[in-house]
Amino acid sequence: MSDFELVWDSRCGVAESPVWDAVNRRILFCDIEGKRINAFSVDTGAREWWDFPDVVGSFGLCRSGRLVVAQRQHVVLFDTRTGALTDLTGTIDEPSVNRLNDGKVGPDGAFWVGSLDGNAPRQNTAALYRVTADGAIARVEEGYKNSNGLAWSPDGRVMYHSDSTAGMLEAWDFDPETGARSTHRVLATLTNDEGRPDGGATDMDGNYWSAGPSAGCLNCFSPSGALLRKWAFPVPGPTMPCFAEGYVYVTSLREGKSAQVLSDYPTLGGLFRAPAPGAGAPVGLFAD
Fold this sequence. Notes:
This protein is mostly beta strands. The protein has a single domain, classed as 6 Propeller (Neuraminidase), CATH 2.120.10.30. Helices cover 2% and strands 48% of the residues. It is built from 1 helix and 25 strands. It has one helix at 259-264, and strands spanning 5-8, 15-21, 26-31, 36-41, 47-51, 58-62, 67-70, 75-78, 85-87, 99-105, 111-116, 126-131, 137-144, 147-152, 158-163, 168-174, 181-189, 200-202, 208-212, 217-221, 227-232, 238-244, 247-252, 271-275, 285-286. The chain starts with a strand and ends with a strand. The model has no long low-confidence stretch (mean pLDDT 97).
């Protein structure tokens, strides 16, 4: 029997970016192409959602109580209480086929968000950006195919990132006050069978948990990149873990799966959880 239970049979095309909202005691997650952010109450199971005018690549929590949201090629602020949607940035300078993808708020209070190349096969035209509350977008890295896997160590002094298409997991030393990075290193390179790195999260022991949708698993790495555990997921396509209240919540995807796979695993695209092996690292808040 799987450790995981299905808590919301949401059947998203690509469910992603689960975020623990401790103030409201809910897990938020998006359906990228569904242009929606979902909210699941961990106490009552109550469900709520908000629709957006464009794709939702990722999002994070703001100090103001709003959400900072990556749309296709720009970033907005959204108030879940009033429905107010405010443009934060202009359009990113990328090819028109690209879109913003995985993003998280760092310990520095900035929204870090990457892009993915929209070609098939993907090319090295994607990048990683740092977005601040004044709407400034700084391109901090480039040459990726699919920027993903952002997470920070519990003390905020290590930043993790991956390129899912390349199967590469990397890290930098990080200054939680300024957002400056140094001492780049590649921690692991993973094949399809091993589970190419998708969304990630860190625990309070400093370990990095990576969803491996190509292998139907969660991989847990030490800070040095040693594989500590491979945790089987009950359906193909886990996309990102999130720690909250003694559980690890994991989103999943339906997009691109065959009719046979969807018949065998009808709850693909849902939100799952299992008892967590430890507590999660702190959730960053955007300094708006």
